[in-house]
Design goal:
Number of strands: 5
Largest sheet: 3 strands, antiparallel
CATH topology: Arc Repressor Mutant, subunit A
CATH superfamily: Winged helix-like DNA-binding domain superfamily/Winged helix DNA-binding domain
Strand order of the largest sheet: 3-5-4
Strand content: 15-25%
Low-confidence stretches: 1-8
Distance between the termini: 35 Å
Order of helices and strands: EEHEHHEEH
Helix content: 55-70%
């Protein structure tokens, strides 16, 4: 069993290997995916697959959510009123095009502030640890 899959037992549940960089990268990327979906839709309306491609491109591959991750996110955002969706037909195929609503634009601004605050805390924490 490698470090990425190794885990300790705590009762009946598995405990992740917190010393494994893959754990932290995965956790961070999962959290950032929602942020970057809002980010690319803040630029312009897009269909789902286009959102996947735009997130990957805008993050230089750092955050590359799958379609299986993005579509449930889009549905969640739409159900919450953060996105609106319209149907368009391209080459005989119907697809949804998602656009941020005013509520979605506000959520994106709040997300930007929250991530900047978290980033500042991480940088300050690293600096403090390096001084020790």
């Amino acid at each position: 069993m490698n470090a990425a899959t190794r885990s300790a037992r705590a009762g009946n549940r598995q405990v992740p290997d917190y010393s494994d960089p893959k754990y932290w990268r995965g956790t961070i990327k999962m959290s950032l995916s929602k942020f970057f979906v809002l980010s690319v839709l803040h630029r312009k309306p897009m269909h789902g697959y286009e959102v996947v491609q735009a997130v990957e491109k805008s993050t230089s591959g750092c955050c590359s959510p799958s379609e299986g991750t993005v579509y449930p996110m889009l549905n969640e955002f739409e159900a919450g009123g953060y996105l609106s969706a319209t149907s368009e037909v391209v080459q005989g195929r119907s697809r949804k095009v998602y656009a941020l609503t005013d509520k979605g634009r506000e959520a994106f601004k709040v997300a930007v502030d929250a991530w900047l605050e978290a980033t500042d805390c991480i940088v300050a924490s690293k600096s403090a640890a390096e001084r020790r």
